[in-house]
Design a protein that fits this description.
The protein is an alpha/beta fold and 380 residues long. The protein is 46% helix and 11% strand. It has three domains: 135 residues, UDP N-Acetylglucosamine Acyltransferase, domain 1; 31 residues, no CATH class; 152 residues, no CATH class. The strands form three sheets. It has a six-stranded mixed β-sheet with strand order 2-5-8-11-14-15, covered by helices on one side. Helix 7 packs across helix 8.
């Protein structure tokens, strides 16, 4: 069997040699097994397989045939032993060519058994050649891609997208980075670290003490931001507890204890804050200034404040919490825990990485998110 240059054999095509001592010979620029979707101006008036047939993807079957240069064999066509297809001819999809048939050059054959329908125009024969050329170019691109690593293929895809985003043609050269910019980015990379740690100017890059100080500042800023987000999440849980308590009847101590236990299972620091808040609400009975501060604290806990909404009726919330605190002070259910926040803060070890619990002062300034390189200790 001989197959020429730039010849495309499609999926499910079968090439057999049933004639003893006779093999198939296929020329250059041949396409075998295609559905041949020609453009409208070159559309061939031949029978097309249905969509169901296309889904099944029937392959052509060729037995000891000779196909000259530039010919095209349609999808599902069957060529018997000894068939010869002339140069630049087209055998329609699904047709059956009896054994020994000779198809002259430049003709269109279709049907079962196949018969000569008409001669092809010069443009139609040229189209058959372009199909073979198109498949050859696709094969070359696939060969080039298979020779590359996965990283190289991904980078090529990135460059293609980048050119499209910047309205560049595929052949346009990429813009070159100025040497001084390359030097700048080289100097701003901390070579002692696996990843970038902020921007290091030339002086800091060459001064080890300054570089270490910069790294320490960056680490402190990272810890401050992490602590900020942890405390915001804790206050969200505290607000959930406040909302659940205001929806719980004061007389039902079991349900109140269940709410407190649930908050403790979600976030221990939130449970300590909520117990401390109930104790402070009980102590503020009759103290209008203290109650006003507690109403502000409840307002700050409400996530609706983040959307500049009015928030819940904090006066009603405060009254319900005061009733719960009074019941707890009488021994109904869980006991009050005055000073719980202070006790928790005193038991923590910042050097070991313990994060201090949020305070009412933090809740009041919760929207003042820390920025890198600034001291957030005052807001905490």
């Amino acid at each position: 069997m001989k197959i020429g240059r730039n010849t495309n054999v499609q999926d499910n095509v079968t090439l057999v040699n049933s004639v003893s001592g006779s093999g198939s010979t296929i020329g250059d620029d041949v396409v075998i097994g295609t559905s041949s979707s020609a453009p409208a101006e070159l559309c061939l008036p031949v029978r097309r397989p249905s969509f169901t047939q296309l889904d099944a993807a029937p392959g052509a079957h060729l037995d000891s045939v000779t196909i000259d240069d530039g010919a095209m064999i349609g999808m599902g066509a069957r060529l018997g032993a000894g068939v010869k297809v002339g140069k630049d001819s087209f055998v329609d999809a699904g047709c059956v060519v009896p054994q020994g048939t000779e198809i002259p050059a430049g003709q269109l054959w279709t049907g079962s058994p196949a018969r000569h329908l008409r001669d092809l125009s010069v443009d139609e024969m040229a189209y058959l050649r372009t199909q073979a050329l198109s498949y050859g170019q696709v094969a070359s691109r696939h060969a080039d891609q298979h020779a590359k690593t996965l990283e190289e293929v991904d980078y090529d895809s990135y460059l293609k997208d980048w050119r499209e985003w910047n309205y560049m043609a595929p052949e346009d050269p990429l813009p070159q980075v100025a040497p001084e910019m390359v030097e700048y980015y080289t100097l701003t990379r901390a070579q002692s670290m696996a990843v970038d740690q902020g921007i290091f100017r030339t002086k800091e890059y060459n001064d080890d003490v300054a570089r270490q100080a910069q790294i320490a500042d960056e680490d402190a800023a990272d810890r401050a931001e992490e602590e900020y987000h942890q405390n915001v999440a804790t206050l969200d849980t505290v607000y959930d507890g406040v909302k659940q308590l205001t929806e719980t009847r004061v007389s039902r101590a079991v349900e109140r204890d269940a709410v407190l236990a649930h908050i403790a299972s979600v976030d221990v620091r939130a449970a300590v804050y909520l117990h401390d808040l109930l104790a402070r609400v009980h102590e503020a009975a009759g103290d209008e200034a203290a109650q006003s501060a507690l109403r502000d604290e409840l307002y700050n806990l409400d996530p609706a404040v983040w959307e500049a909404a009015k928030g819940a009726d904090t006066q009603a919330q405060l009254a319900t919490l005061a009733a719960h605190a009074a019941a707890m002070a009488k021994g109904e259910g869980a006991a009050l825990q005055p000073g719980a926040l202070a006790e928790l803060a005193a038991s923590l070890d910042p050097e070991a990485g313990d994060v201090a619990p949020p305070t009412p002062k933090f809740a009041a300034g919760i929207r003042e998110r820390p920025t890198r390189g600034t001291d957030n200790a005052e807001s905490r």
